[in-house]
Amino acid sequence: MTQTEKLGKEGEIWAVGGGKGGTGKTFITSSIGTYLAQKGRRVILVDMDIGGANLHSFFGIDRPARSLTSFFETGAALSDLAVRTEIESMSLITGDIHSLSAENIKFSQKLKLFRQIMKLNAQNVIIDLGAGSHGNTLDTFLIADRMIIVIAPEIIAIENMYHFVKAALFRQVKKSLKEYGLKEIVQHVWDRRERYGVKNVKDLIDYLKDAYPYFGAILDRELGHFRLHLVLNMVRSGQDIQLGAAIKSVLMKYLGVPVHFSGYVMYDDTVWRSVRDRKPFMRNYLSTGTAKEIETLVENIVLARDVTVPGGMS
Amino acid sequence: MTRTDLRKSYEILELPDSASLREVQNAYLRLRKLYAGSSVALAPLEEEFSENTRRKILQQVEDAYDKLRSALNGERTNAKAGGAGERGDTVPELDRLEEIVYSGPVLRKIRERVNLNENAVFQELKIRTELLRALEEERFEVLPQVVYLKGHLQSIARLLGLQPDRVVEDYLRRYRDWKDDRGKE
Fold it and tell me: Which residue from A142, A151, A159, A154 is spatially nearest to A48, judged by alpha carbons?
């Protein structure tokens, strides 16, 4: 196996979400992409932050010639919309759509978009999701082979992320059972959750498994794919890193979701400076520390591994 | 104990099957601190998940630690059937998390439970063994001034995964009660 092959199989879709805006999702997306491309992988970045797209400006592209607008408005093929970046083997599909927000995408368009994303000619397709927990954002998250969530160590970001994960999990449960014609039951129980003693999505899953034993096997199989890779950005202290480990624990114990704490990125002024100068970080500006942190977190995502958390007793 | 039991215990402590006793202890302390305390990681979910959930998690962590500790310690308790005596050293606070008073003897109990001997405390915190003993035995007359004592209590609390504020508050209340009593004599 070559080093490039070690970084994943052909056509892997990675989605970067997490609920709150301003936690650095776009920075993490561009850095992951750049790292993989520099390792020889063919990478396509897709900016799905519809209405707030800015991934292109991270690569010094002012006004992209093509964007997802053409896909939605004139039916252009997704693969024709990729523009080159200054990094070889990485291109970018920008989402510079001022006229649309994520809610406005029609169902049929969404399915078509997902089909075409899956067919993109790349070894890694990396999707930058917008903020919020809207259905279309969640659905995009759920098609990914690697579900990455980016948070900052502050309470609002953590709160929004929990909301995002719960919403995604609920949607996955519905989606899983829908394929067996059982979608209505999920909504039925949820709408009458007080009567069923269901307080949260974990209770819901437990209730469904209990009440309908054959759901258990379906849910176990379908939810087996739901695995989160947590990235903590804008870290300023060892205590912040411990918080990352705590969040992983809470997600696993309270929501019953498998989680890897893949890595963290220390707060770094050079990141801010390179955004201002519109330069891709990995090539021009990333301090060695940050570049190393990106490398670690990407490798951990690939291998579904956890980062070593410093601290504790010696 | 079965292998499935062991694996499950490692899973609860969020560790790989290969983790050492020290790693098990660290994970135990970390998780107990998280689920017994008030972490930012927990706060946003507190409304929809009941206090009961939290207690259940704490109990699982406690049980997992019990199992792994005896397994990794060479299973000395194996010979004793029944296991009635095995839980004799359980930290009382689990049952009444809010009511526990961090007295000297309770601190010792917790310390022994996480297999930290006096020497380890000295290594970690540079607290001399004589002082630690006096503190745990509540021989208040030989303890240093409150300002120093407070610092020691805080670092011991942190080492044991307890909330420093509560430990200091409880312990110093006992200290002051003793002082008041002495004043009356």
Answer: A142
Contact A155 B43 (CB under 8 A): yes
Residue A261 with chain B: CB contacts under 8 Å:
none
**The domain containing residue B116 runs over which residues?**
101-185
- Whether B22 sits inside 8 A of A313 (CB atoms) is yes
Strand stretches in chain A, DSSP E: 12-17, 43-48, 83-84, 90-93, 124-129, 146-151, 228-235, 259-266
Among A158, A249, A252, whose Cβ lies nearest the Cβ of B40? A158
Task: Please name which of A147, A133, A141, A130 lies closest in space to residue A230, comparing C-alpha atoms.
Answer: A147
Given a cut of 50, whether residue B154 has pLDDT beyond it is yes
**B161 assigned to some structural domain:** yes
Q: Cβ of B41 and A312 within 8 Å?
A: no
Angle at A233 between CA A83 and CA A201, to 5 degrees: 95
Please give the average per-residue pLDDT across A100-116, as a whole number: 84
- DSSP per-residue codes, A203-229: HHHHHHHHH-HHHHHHHHHHHTT--EE
Whose tokens are 């520390």? That residue is A289
DSSP B92: G
* A193-203 mean pLDDT: 88
* Closest Cα in chain B, distance from residue A163 (Å): 9
CATH class name, domain A9-154+227-249+258-303 = alpha beta
CB spacing of A312 vs B42 below 8 angstroms: no
The confidence score (pLDDT) of residue A99 equals: 59
The residue out of B42, B66, B98 marking a domain boundary is B98
Does residue B63 sit in the same domain as residue B105?
no
Q: Is B157 within 8 Å of B163 (Cβ atoms)? A: yes
- pLDDT value at residue A100: 61
Q: Which of B51, B69, B98 is the last residue of a domain?
A: B98
Asked if B124's CB is within 8 angstroms of A159's CB, the reply is: no
B107 and B182 in a single domain? The answer is yes
Answer whether A40's CB lies under 8 Å from A89's CB: yes
Tens of pLDDT along A214-260?
Answer: 888 888 888 888 999 999 999 998 889 999 999 999 999 999 899 99
Q: Give me the number of domains chain B comprises.
A: 2
* Cα nearest neighbour of A314 on chain B: B124
Tokens of A197: 């003693």
CATH of the domain at B137: 1.10.260.40
d(CA A93, CA A114): 14
Q: Identify whether residues B148 and B179 lie together within a single domain.
A: yes
Residue B93 has pLDDT above 80, yes or no: no
Q: Tell me whether A239 touches chain B (CB under 8 Å).
A: no
Contact between residue B3 and residue B97 where contact means Cβ atoms under 8 Å apart: no
